[in-house]
Hints:
The complex is a heterodimer. Chain A has 22 helices and 15 strands. Chain A is of the alpha/beta class. Chain A folds into four domains: about 220 residues, P-loop containing nucleotide triphosphate hydrolases (Rossmann fold), CATH 3.40.50; about 140 residues, no CATH class; about 100 residues; about 110 residues, no CATH class.
Amino acid sequence: MRLQVLGWQSIGLRCADSKIDLESGGVKKLNLIQMPNGTGKTTTLGLIQAAMTGDANTWSPKKIQTYKSKNKDNEQGRFILHLQIDDNRLSFDLTIDFEQNEVTYRTSSSRIGGAVEGWKPPSEYRRFLVKSFVGLFIFDGELSKKLLDENETQAEKAIDALCQLYLLDEVKSKLDAYWEKAVDKADAKTTKGLQMWQGKLSKLSTRKDFLNNTKTESEKKNITLKNNIQELSDSIVERLAKEGGKLEEMEEAKINAANAENQVEKDAETLMRDLRQPHLVDALFAENLKTLKDSMVELQIPRETSKQFFVEVSKSPSCICGEPMNEERKVRILERSEKYLGSDITGELNALKTDIENNTSNINATNNSVSSSAIALQDSIDASLQAETDIATLQHTLTKGMDEGIKEDNITLDALKLEKQGLSDLLEALNEDDNGLDSVESLSIASIKRQHKKAKDKVSEISDNVALSNQIEIVKSILSKATIDSRSKITAQIVDECNELLEEIMKLNPVTIRNINKSLQLEGQDGASTGQTLAVGYCFLSTLLNRGENKFPFVVDSPANPLDDVVRAEIATMIPKLCDQMIAFVIPPERPDFIPPLVQASDNDVRYITTFRINKGSQNLLDSLPDDKKLVEKTDDGVLVYGEEYFNRFLKEKE
Amino acid sequence: MSIDHEVENAINKIVLDLKQDKKLSRKILAWLGDLSEKEISSSDDLEHLKGVLRSACTEENNE
Lengths: 655, 63
């Protein structure tokens, strides 16, 4: 990517109104803008940076006021910056409202095809137009100091910004965010959690198999026991009856018991049937039903309100109101008849009336029906119990004096019955519904099945999470290691390249970079002179900015001012080699030892601009302006002169 | 502006050292390249992320 500054215009701001053109006749390698102190160099640099980064939106009211012209009482000021990025032109137009303390932007670009409100550069350029990045090539002396300050991290930040190492951290953050989102609702996310659930699943699987087997076995055993009990019981009874000569009596008692039990069932059915008829349950029901039926008769329901009635009316020559029946009236009556009872409902109501009539005609007999059914049931239950008692009594009588074999069989029978009862209880517990509680010890197969499914789902879910976590950790570890390794290599390469440059330009005042560990560390010295600091800063940034295939301009305020005379020439020779376009804001005293070697190193591809503010003291400057008016641009409060001749003549007498 | 070649070299080497498939370094570098050169949509970003994770071999997805 290649970024060039094509020019800017300032109106109504702290710096004099001016329009700087760095494009006409082609973009020059070296652009010298001579401005006496107090003309607004710092203001212009600040505005270039603000335009490029969109940063003025965050300025405080106090900062905004620092850009207000001291001489004019204007409400607004404007600054327009023109850039070229690769083949695209891009302009940022700032309007600073000093009344509202607001800054607004407009952006125009060949890429977006016109102007839009706001700071909106094409998206692919945005990441280079941020303060941390732009601050590296719009250079001030403070940055050099920070690069060498061990308490600062500017050097490392610069490497990260230029080599885009921050992208690796960005990807790591994206992976972390993806992980958080993926496991947001999961209870357990770790290997430990997975092991816990796997253990639980294993126990539940064993339990499920055990309970299913137990159920199958118990059901089989239950059938066998039932048969054994029946056989043994029959055998005992038969033998007892034979032994006591009461076989017939026993058979008869058994038949009686069976008959009594059948009678209980019949009487229970009769009672239930009676209970389903409300008029048979209580006389009050019957009386109220009769009242309902009488009311329906009195109101002639359903006949008078039936649909059929209206159908018949519609067929009559006259309506019930006496008016003759015409077609319109007939249609309306038939339409509205739909809202009244149809023949199906009428039939139901008539059937209801008939039923009430038939069933409530003899209310006095009602009570006796349910009562007699209930009494009959009670009697048959008593009879059934008596029949059972008779058998037990007979059995007891026969047991006295029976032989040892029958006694033992009786003991066995009791044991079998006990065992069967135990099995029945167990089967009942196994078939119990799921109570929703989690317990591995539960006997309910339904509960264990539900818990097993839950554990299985959980294991599957956590397994996925654990796999995802491991994948993310692998990628993050690659990125972390790559950040450290590549930064270390890039740093070493930059240190070598910088030291080669420094060796060349700082022959009389040698300085060597030992390492870059957050800040630039110099070999064998804790501090550095102003010249050394600036030289090291230039070397470091230019090496960095030229890394890869990128070309950024180098915008510098008073580049030679803090330098010794000897170092000035050396640095002047060096800087043009370090960048594609240099814009240097210079003051007249920097000219003698700095400008000639700088111009020479730039292959004379130079644009000279001199600008000063019009005030009481500038009359002699106005008097000595070049005769060629094409070279001079005047505004309300400033003058701008293009050309080498005036540049070198400016304030010469004063020097 | 493309990603620095030293970052590329480091990722390729680490992926090899970890005995991961070369596909993983290609996917990571493609993602970093897109992030470096353009503003990518969230759906493209997610596509890159999933592609990278799919290429990362773990004991679980090796089985």
